[in-house]
Amino acid sequence: MTVIDWDVAVNTGVRLVRPGPQVDLPDARQAVAQLRELSTVAAGHVRDFTGMNPLVPAGPAAVVDRPGWIRANVDGFRVVIEPVLEQMGARRLSGSAAANLTGAVGARVTGVQLGALLAYLAGKVLGQYELFLPPDPDGNLPTGRLTLVAPNIVHTERELDVDPRDFRLWVCLHEETHRMQFTATPWLRGYVQDLMQELLLSSEMDAGDLITRLRAAGEAVADAVRGGEGNLITAIQSPEQLEIMDRVTAVMSLAEGHGDYVMDAVGPEVVPSVERIRARFQKRREGLGPLDRVLRQVLGMDMKMRQYEEGAAFVRAVVAEVGMADFNKVWTSRETLPTLAEIREPSAWVDRVVRPAAVTE
């Protein structure tokens, strides 16, 4: 039984998303070509700086517009959520409310709300490493795809009044770091997917309960637009999930902070205006309008800003204390990932993971 109408989600998101900045066709083509080129350039810088080596060939990034980003993310939602719903199918759909929620009308409503969330986010995201992709025609799971959202990058570089090539390379450095994390560390993708599924299956929810929570998330956003203070994180989270959320937050803080650290630390010889870009970008983050701030809070994006800051501070502290080679022990296994407490106290991770190994050498 279909519980989310994915086609409705795509159509709603594409209909609601705001158009990107006005760009002449030759300039648009030049931006797309340059982003593809710079993603490859950035991959070399990330490899040299981090000492990590991808186990699969990278190739240039996929460059998309806002509707393209929405379509890709609906595909990603399906890859993560549909197996969870299948497992929940073993748990009965309890009561008439759940039955109604999983009917055709409920599936369309949930699709509309998911599409509305993605329409908002599609105007904000500069790029991402798409971890969860549908199988190819032969049934093989792709390792992932680096995607850059060209209109958002062009809009942001104009708004910040920074050098376009420098800004585009700076963004590519961050996103290529994410690609390196997952292509050089093959177990990491499975760990993140396990965490996401464990998070959704961690309480005695059935499919109807999950859809109820997705509905609540949509209502939280609608409430924020009306001036309320709803929060998506509390809307979809149960008390039993807090421990799992700590593990999710820890790994995402590591990934995002590592990306932020690398994009700034690669150096002025690669991105000459990096200090100006970072200063203006940070000021932009802090200068959002009231509605935008509320929506970011509702969508958990404020939490992601903290992940950037805490994760980058963790990476800086560890690299300063033990060097890049020993920092890279973080990617050895699930057990060597930092806990959330260690993200906030980097020396505790060094004592647990790096120093015991040093004693026996």
Automatic annotation (TrEMBL):
Pfam families: Zincin_2
Alphabetical list of Gene3D superfamilies matching this protein: Zincin-like metallopeptidase, N-terminal domain (1.20.150.30)
InterPro entries noted in UniProt: CHP03883_F420-assoc, Zinicin_2, Zinicin_2_N
Name of the protein in question: Coenzyme F420 biosynthesis associated uncharacterized protein
Originating species: Nocardiopsis algeriensis
Organism taxonomic ancestry: Bacteria, Bacillati, Actinomycetota, Actinomycetes, Streptosporangiales
